[in-house]
Write a structure and sequence with these properties.
This protein is mainly alpha-helical and 329 residues long. 77% of the residues lie in helices and 4% in strands. The chain has 2 domains: 4-113 and 239-328, Rhomboid-like fold; 160-236. The longest helix is centred in the middle third of the chain and has 45 residues, at 192-236. The two termini are 38 Å apart.
Length: 329
């Protein structure tokens, strides 16, 4: 009922879950961020996360259902396959789940990265406003993005306000100078004092214009720094945790090997394993495609675990057939 690999996987997952809350509360260490799997192009991505993410879980419900499924279906498979094959299958399903998930993420982040590169190729205030107004790409997807944007927004709005005020002042000086120039042209006698005022106003307008232009250039530079920070935060935001991908692979294997075994859904509703797997896989596909707002479950990672599990089982089945025919010969 508790073979070695399943037993050790249960222990490791529980220990990581306890460590997450102990270190988080005592030392403010975010193990989800450290050991969860970040996007491969992100600054926070580390190679060890490819494996460590499988031992991290979000909350008690997350780990409870994963570990329950690991025990319910895993111990049967390990007893049939043996520890080595079972562990290989479990790890490969977990790796495949991550790969499929981030293939989907790749296509999701491409419009954002393209918009960022487009702005950086031709930076400017108008281009930045177009970037901000583009709801498809400007997505506040994490605390870091929200925090950095709020800090940036205060400073940026201050720069633009000062620049606009200086531009209005320059326009006011220029208008006054023009009015005085018009008055001079109507006078019969030279008006040196008025000409001096015009020169002074034009000079003040030029200074205000130069200051306004300098602030606008500073705003463009500030925007570029923000865009670079936004890109970093945006790529760091996607992170997956949990053994669900590997567990879904185990679920698929159980359904394929023992299709007519009854599984009690919610411990009450009897259902044959093959129908349970098909129903669960179909539900994950619908939820993944619908991409509902607020849904933070990596449905395509679950499907990825099942897909890789299916491929592995087909390869093993083909190799077993080859061995069988070789033995007959």
């Amino acid at each position: 009922m508790l073979p070695p690999v399943v037993k050790n996987l249960l222990i490791i997952n529980i220990l990581f879950f306890i460590a997450k809350y102990v270190l988080g509360n005592a030392m403010n260490v975010d193990l989800d961020d450290m050991l969860g799997l970040h996007y491969f192009g992100a600054e926070k991505f580390k190679p060890y996360q490819i494996v460590s993410y499988m031992f991290m879980h979000g909350d008690i419900t997350h780990i409870l259902f994963n570990m329950l499924a690991l025990w319910m279906f895993g111990y049967v498979l390990e007893n049939v396959w043996g520890p080595k094959r079972f562990l290989t299958y479990y790890i490969l399903c977990g790796l495949g789940a991550a790969a499929v998930h981030y293939i989907i993420v790749y296509f999701q982040v491409q419009p954002v990265l393209e918009a960022i590169e487009q702005y950086k190729a031709s930076p400017g205030l108008i281009q930045f406003k177009q970037f901000i107004d583009n709801q498809q790409v400007f997505q506040v997807a994490s605390y870091d993005i929200q925090n950095h944007f709020n800090t940036f927004s205060v400073s940026y709005n201050g720069i633009i306000h000062n620049s606009d005020s200086l531009a209005q002042t320059a326009q006011h000086f220029t208008l006054q100078a023009q009015n005085i120039s018009d008055s001079i042209s109507m006078l019969h006698a030279p008006a040196d004092s008025l000409r001096a005022q015009v020169a002074n106003l034009n000079q003040m307008a030029q200074i205000a214009t130069q200051q306004s232009d300098s602030l606008q250039q500073a705003a463009v530079t500030f925007n570029t720094d923000f865009i670079n920070q936004y890109r970093e935060d945006y790529l760091n935001a996607p992170v997956i945790i949990g053994a669900s991908g590997a567990v879904f692979g185990i679920l698929l294997a159980f359904g394929m090997m023992f299709p007519n075994t009854l599984v009690y859904v919610y411990f009450a509703i009897p259902m044959k394993a093959k129908w349970f797997v098909i129903l669960y896989g179909g539900l994950e596909l619908v939820l993944g495609v619908s991409n509902r707002s607020g849904d933070n479950v990596a449905h395509f990672a679950h499907l990825g675990g099942m897909l890789v599990g299916f491929i592995i089982l087909m390869i093993w089945k083909r190799n077993n057939r080859k061995k069988m025919f070789e033995n007959r010969e």
